[in-house]
Amino acid sequence: MAEQLTGLADDRALLGRTSTAERVSDILRGRIAEGFFPPGTRLSEDSIGGALGVSRNTLREAFRLLTHERLLVHELNRGVFVRVLTVEDVEDIYRTRRLVECAVVRGLGDPPYGLDALAEVVEVGQRAAREGDWKGVGTANIHFHRELVALAGSARTDELMRSVFAELRLAFHVVDDPKALHEPYLARNQQILQALEAGNRAEAEKLLAVYLEDSLERVVEVYRRRVGEDSGL
Fold it and tell me: For 16, which DSSP code?
């Protein structure tokens, strides 16, 4: 926890003089997504509030916001914890992803599309793989889908999927072999990008739908095994 709080204290400057619960929740959401606070971690009000230099009321409001986003859970008489997803949660996350991501690609309209950010993320993922940074590959994969959603040009859709992708990271943090989980999708990201570059959104949607089906099956298989092991089942 001391190391985690040291990193969190570095974010204090981001709050500026107009600290709000929303800005605190942005910082904590990012830290949770990056794995600084793994699933099941108890979040101390005193320690985190001290590291960020915010009041207890502000921090509690930030906790409430993240609980609403299903990233945290409040346990009576025990405190606030980073949520541990169930298999049903993971399945629901992917159901939402299919509904939103495929609809975004389907509704892109006529090419050309603004794909610079998407192409850059593909390169970031490939570079991370060459360096053996499989956690970085996982982050790049999620950023790929975030940029794909951003093609819709909808702030509301971006906001919705920000929480969905943060939840997805909770599942990824349970997986003990990130290379096996993320490596197969590097080539698939490239294929989806190439289909969009060619202006073939129907092919891109087809590739994406199969991608998400295969990813769900793989994540659930690994997640069910790890959660079962951790619970002694």
Answer: T
Rounded CA separation 67/205 (Å): 32
User: Pairing mode, if any, of strands 79-82 and 72-75?
Assistant: antiparallel
**b/e map 125-164, b = 16+ CB within 10 Å:** bbebbeeebbebbbbbbbbbbbbbbbbbeeeebeeebbbb
Give the model confidence (pLDDT) of 177-197 as tens digits: 888 888 999 999 999 999 999
Please answer whether residues 94 and 101 qualify as being in contact, where contact means their C-beta atoms are separated by less than 8 angstroms.
Answer: no
Write down the pLDDT at residue 2.
Answer: 62
Q: Are 58 and 26 in contact (CB under 8 A)?
A: no
124 has pLDDT over 60: yes
Contact 113, 187 (CB under 8 A): no
Measured CA to CA, the distance from residue 48 to residue 39 in angstroms comes to: 17
Distances (CA, A) of 98 to 184, 185, 188, 202, 209: 19, 16, 16, 15, 7
Write out the H or E segment, with its range, that includes residue 133. Answer: none
